Amino acid sequence: MASSATAPTAPPALSLPPSQFARLQPHAYLLAHLSPPASSQQPSIRANGRAPSQFRITSANTGSLTHTNGSAVVRLGDTTAVCGIKAEILHTEDIASWSVSHASSPSAPNKRRKLTNPTEKPGEDRQDGSSQAEDDDDNSYIEDFSLLVPNLSLSTGCAPGFIPGAPPSAHAQSLSHQILSLLHSSRLVRSEDLQIWYQRPNLGPEELERHNEDEQMDVDSAQDGSGGVASEVREIKAFWVLYIDIMIISLAGNPFDVAWTAVLAALRDTKLPRAWWDADNEAVVCSDLVSEARKLSLRGLPVSSSFGVFEADAASGWRAVIVPDAEEERKIAESDRKGIQRRWVLADPDGYEEGLAQERVCLVVDKVQQNGKIVIVKLEKNGGFAVDRKQMKELVETSVRRWQDINQILKEC
Amino acid sequence: MGGPIASLHPLSRADGSASYKCPATGSNVLGSVNAPIELPGRRDALKPEDATIEVFVKPGTAPGGVGERHIEGILRGALGRIILGREKGYPRRGVVITLAVVGCDNIARGSSYLPILPALLHTSILALLSASVPLSMTFSATVLAVDSSGEIVCEPSSTDAAAAASLHVLAFTSQGHLLLNESEGRFDFDTWERVYERALAICHGTSALGSDGDVAMSENVDAQPLEGFVRDTVEDHIHREYAWKIDAA
Amino acid sequence: MNKEAALSVAERDFILDALREDVRLDGRSADQLRPLTLSFGEEYGHVKVQLGKTSLIVRISAEVAKPHDDRPFDGIFSIAMELTAMGSPAWENGRQGDFETYVTNVLDRVIRHSNALDTESLCVLKGVSCWTIRADVHITGYDGNLIDASCIGVMAGLQHFRRPDAVVKEGQVIVYGIDEKVPVPLNITHKPLSVTFHTFDEGKLVILDATRKEEQASEADVVIGLNNAGDVCYLSKFSGSPVDAMVFVTKTTVALEKVKELNGIIDKALQADLAKRAKGGLAEQARAENDRLIG
């Protein structure tokens, strides 16, 4: 109980500057801020001057890197991330699994990946009313052929301890994976935006061409015959692969929120040139007209909010580990009633607070445009026992507020 | 389907080990624990007052990648709160947990690790118990999938998991705290609360539930709560190990 | 660290003195193997090997991939082995040591470079798709002679493995699931195995299948890779003190005998597993396998 003893007496006995006290006794320092003695008349506030559910000032700037297809710089307090997106062309013939189909999978007949129905033009059907089945197929392209390749690096000197020439740390790898899996699970990017098609010429020339083609094409024409001779045949010839590089240039806690916001802002900024397959040259040709380049149409706007839990009794665990049993829980509940808080859920923890919080919560929420319904895309909680169902509900509400803020910021940038 | 199958101490060289097999999800994990052990290579990372916990996940048929590093972080976070790293002999030493996925569908880069996470968690806790690492409590975990119609599927197979709208892994300590939650996919808070209720019932049995248990619970009454499973596995092992003593008595 | 705790002088002397009197600590003779048991998992190509106290698991997996540009007709075969703290507390996770590199190299040479698996048979569509076969070796307990045990595991795994059937239709590769079409065994050209010898007393004493302690007390090792026909596919004297050339000559005969013995055990275990599977209503596969064994 060293902490509770130091906390009330700390302010008068303080004979060294606060910054040193913060380094020597980080836990007691933060605790003294969060639960000031009743006599001092001071409000409970975090050491960085924020209220527990307050995020740091966020700013975003897009399009700052000229050699990328889309880029963004996002700053959240002292944590800054730069994200650049570069699109590269991946030919379907270079994808090993492109020409492979599994007999057991239900979509096997579709594997030819051709559309025989002229009314159904991918890339133009942008309404949300698109069928579920199409959506599923859509998503599998991005996952199966890894069309989104995020890579996060914690750059040299972004925080003390990051030395040059070190291989990507486990932390950076883990963040890269989190961004990748969130891109997949939120289905943010539509695969139809990444497809490069070949529109086979209609009727006459097509028929002529077929006579010279090998047997394989004959089978195709037989298939197409069912859809009518005049049907246009489209075929995916290549994909855009988005290389999403995120660099944390300054790290002061909460890298995931910043990195994700940067990815989001950069994707909103990304423009892909119009590209098509040129049968004569057997190559993908891109238009260099800026007016023809189009933006990605993203699905929603999932916003991430992270929290850290600061526990008043963590210091007493210096010697013994506190096992929160029924007795302990009862004590916490009792002190809650008395108005003495023992646990604080801190939104957007900075580097100092992250070092003191073992328990982490990360929530990614989105608001559906049409009906304003809140959808949770990711909910992670690890490393502690404090956050339960009730608390989680509050955190979801905080995240929704955060969604509004980020939405506003991204709209303006 | 039948419940999970586990055995303690199948390996000879490690301080503690466990194998865990869940027929429903098809995951089969072998785990070993070496503790307390000197880690001379990580001297600068060692903590003066606490044990250093290292988790290593080795996929069955692929080289390790970013997905493994991420899941290692999750496991380290959860186990770090359970292991009493300040006990005598542990500070400045390492607790090295190695988990090898010996049977399950391969997990591709970027795809979800959640279906196998409960198996990894159970294997680690059993291996830690087998290595006699001091623990503050035990835990149990489960994976649930919610399909597009909102139906909850317990311990989904790989095809169920792929088709699900959202996937949830929840771990509860033996004291009933929510130790870990990993959810992904699209869902709302009410769905998560239903998943929470259901997972608590699976891990702790219906008795741990309030009086407002809903209909879905009834099908789980016959199944043994997972918390008991960890206990039974250890009990069985001790029974076998001390057969000589029990017989003599 | 990556190194086992050193033997005490007394322990080393004890092992050496015993060997001079032709006694090994576990009661074996110099040219005797430890008991070998092989068991197979439910999946094809999942093998557990137990050689004395050395144990490991091998998993074989197959995937369709694009062949290397310079070898459009060849499939890809790789052996991956990573030493983790599971096998021995002395091995550090995620750090490659010399020992790991050495063992992987020997495995590669004995099995992969000797073309035990016919990679040309893995081609599906020239230059477009082929099978990638991957053997993952998980060491679960290390008590000496890792090389031989791993060789046994990988070879048994390759013979046990069945890859899904694939056909080319209209330039499209269709892969049939294991339950849809009888899966195909791999094309094994020959069955090489390695036999490791350790020498003591300036090469005067030579034993095979050394335990971890015997390995530590030894002066040098000699690895001989052979197949049933007696073709030598690997021969090495990697480190340690010099060994008399005659050791290679005399011990090659011993090695051939041991390789035949080991291959016999593998064949028996494979057949027992097949019989078990046949009972499970998979008679079809057993027939295919028998045809292959006769042929």
UniProtKB/TrEMBL annotation, chain A:
Record carries keyword Chloroplast: no
Keyword RNA-binding belongs to the record: yes
UniProt cross-references to InterPro entries, sorted A to Z: ExoRNase_PH_dom1, ExoRNase_PH_dom2_sf, Exosome_comp_Rrp42_subfam, PNPase/RNase_PH_dom_sf, Ribosomal_Su5_D2-typ_SF
Name recorded for this polypeptide: Ribosomal RNA-processing protein 43
Taxonomic classification: Eukaryota, Fungi, Dikarya, Ascomycota, Pezizomycotina
Family: Belongs to the RNase PH family.
Organism: Aspergillus pseudoustus
Cellular component aspect of the GO annotation: ribosome
Subcellular location: Cytoplasm; Nucleus, Nucleolus
Keywords of this entry: Cytoplasm, Exosome, Nucleus, Ribonucleoprotein, Ribosomal protein, RNA-binding, rRNA processing
Residue ranges of every copy of the Exoribonuclease phosphorolytic domain listed in the record: 54-121, 141-273
Region named Disordered: 98-138
Residue ranges, compositional bias (Low complexity): 98-108
Automatic annotation (TrEMBL), chain B:
Organism for this UniProt entry: Aspergillus pseudoustus
Keyword Nucleus: yes
Subcellular location: Nucleus
PANTHER family: EXOSOME COMPLEX COMPONENT, EXOSOME COMPLEX COMPONENT RRP46
UniProt keyword rRNA processing, yes or no: yes
Name of the protein this chain belongs to: Uncharacterized protein
Keywords of this entry: Exosome, Nucleus, rRNA processing
Top-rank taxon, per record: Eukaryota
TrEMBL record, chain C:
GO cellular component terms, A-Z: ribosome
Subcellular localization, as worded in the UniProt entry: Cytoplasm; Nucleus
Origin superkingdom: Eukaryota
Keywords: Cytoplasm, Nucleus, Ribonucleoprotein, Ribosomal protein, RNA-binding
Entry keyword annotation includes rRNA processing: no
Pfam (any one): RNase_PH
Chain ranges of the Exoribonuclease phosphorolytic domain: 32-164, 192-242
Family: Belongs to the RNase PH family.
Entry protein name: Ribosomal protein S5 domain 2-type protein
Top-level taxonomy: Eukaryota, Fungi, Dikarya, Ascomycota, Pezizomycotina
